[in-house]
Amino acid sequence: MTELDHIRNFSIVAHIDHGKSTLADRLIQETKTVADRDMKAQLLDSMDIERERGITIKANTVRIDYVAQNGEKYVLNLIDTPGHVDFAYEVSRSMRAVEGSLLVVDSTQGVEAQTLANVYQAIDADHEIVPILNKIDLPASECDRVAEQIEDVIGIDASNAIRVSAKAGIGIVDTLEAIVHRLPAPKGDRNAPLKAMLVDSWYDSYLGVVVMIRVMDGVIRKGDRIKMMQTGAVYGVDTLAVLKPQMVAIAELGPGEIGVFTASIKQVRDTKVGDTITHEKKGCEKPLPGFKPSIPVVFCGLFPVDANDFDDLRDAIEKLALNDASFTYEMETSAALGFGFRCGFLGLLHLEVIRDRLEREYDIDLITTAPSVVYHLYMKDGELRELHNPADMPDLTYVSHIEEPRIKATILVPDEYLGDVLKLCQDRRGIQLDLTYAGSRAMVVYDLPLNEVVFDFYDRLKSVTKGYASFDYQLTGYREDNLVKMSILVNDEPVDALSMMVHRERAEMRGRAMVEKLKDLIPRHMFKIPIQAAIGGKVIARETLSALRKDVTAKCYGGDATRKRKLLDKQKAGKKKMRQFGKVEIPQEAFISALKMDG
Description:
Elements: E1 7-14, H1 20-30, H2 48-53, E2 60-67, E3 73-80, H3 88-96, E4 100-106, H4 113-124, E5 128-134, H5 143-154, E6 162-163, H6 172-182, E7 195-204, E8 208-217, E9 220-221, E10 225-228, E11 234-236, E12 239-244, E13 246-249, E14 252-253, E15 258-262, E16 276-279, E17 298-304, H7 310-323, E18 328-334, E19 338-345, H8 348-361, E20 366-368, E21 375-379, E22 384-387, E23 399-414, H9 418-427, E24 431-438, E25 441-449, H10 450-453, H11 457-464, E26 470-480, E27 483-490, E28 493-494, E29 500-503, H12 504-521, E30 529-535, E31 538-545, H13 561-581, H14 588-595
Parallel strand pairs: 1-3, 1-4, 4-5, 5-6
Antiparallel strand pairs: 2-3, 7-8, 7-16, 8-15, 9-14, 10-11, 10-16, 12-13, 12-15, 17-19, 17-20, 18-19, 21-22, 21-23, 23-25, 23-26, 24-25, 27-28, 27-29, 27-30, 30-31
Helix pairs in contact: 1-6, 12-14
């Protein structure tokens, strides 16, 4: 049992690549939490895809025992959080489990967009924040300028910011001392009824569902009967442990402590993140304020390349959903692609990560349809419908108006690229809300339609700014606009995987770009193929893919012209018949390339 004033719970927040996971490694190494032989870089990033891409996807926890310089023993619970905007949901729930944050800022780069987004979440959660300037061993490091920038842009005092190099191990003891002396101890009443917050849950093939909790009041022991307050389900606690990163069994968890338990729970779906856990008898009366459930913002269809793999895909998606509660799916069918799933994601990176994991961990070749967002259709009879897939668009005569989701985007960019960024945002139907300066960098705030961002906005932003811009967004709501559904017809057959919602003024431009691209991507057939973009019954762009021709007159030598004519007419009739019944095969690469719209 640890006294409350000797516990510190904290998270590490920062922009992508500013050194969160490396700092976590050093804190673990310095306190000998993990033996040197088991130590490896990015210790807490356990998934292959995290290690390969060098990013954190799941927030991970570790308990560290630290003897301070004044000789007192402390228990530190560290949560390493992701930096990407798509996983901001992981960050927000980690924040609620702890009382303080280490704000890591790269002393060569300064404050970036996600630094702001994540630190504001920490401020919203009433955290004590300790600024840390990382990478001081690099020649380009400018600690004083960056400390000033933290004060100007974020508005927190950075005069006593700790200067560290997580890679070289400089300043690690100072960081540990700051955690002990500058961050607050948790509060809680040991004698009150049990009140614990469910922070995270994941599926383990040996133990079933493992649930991570932060105890607010009361004590939880092995063998207790506990109740989930949202679902009303009752379980018996089988094992109780703390993570060092491996599980270490423990007899009880008291107030302020973070640990995990297993209780023969079959599905992660049964454990709602943010739920309150209490004892079955003599439980607490009021639950803790939970989190808002994560709302998927980007939808796309996942189909197996080989229709026989559909059952494997279904099993794989169900297993992945066990570990990732923010990912939603439902079955759908498509004329062009057969059976598959319509899946919802928190953003494009989330989509890529799920797709990579399905292909890699379950060995399934996938076709991904165009990512789309959720539109609100207001019908003439007053009904509000949600449109997830443009192919399901009802007849426009029944629709009063369409609303699309808008986001507030914050972009930090060096001054010399500002013009290109403003032009990019204007081209994407953006409305400028704010433009301020932090040193030599501009901070632009734009109101943008989400469907213009989900395609390739981030790639375009990186290319026009040579990779120097950083970007963060949050959903702000829905607004009416002049939107239409654009269908792509190949050989007069609609290809539902390529239909999309576009702004009426842009439709012709998008349609023309799309058919020109498809003309290059679809291989030629024995008959000529028209490729058209249409809105309703009106064709707005067309290209024709010419036929492959066999020289049928090659064997004619001599004789009159009617012999050649006869052979050519026969070929022509054959082509006409072929075109009537011919199936056009659109290769998988064509789908993916056609959806990447160039500027």
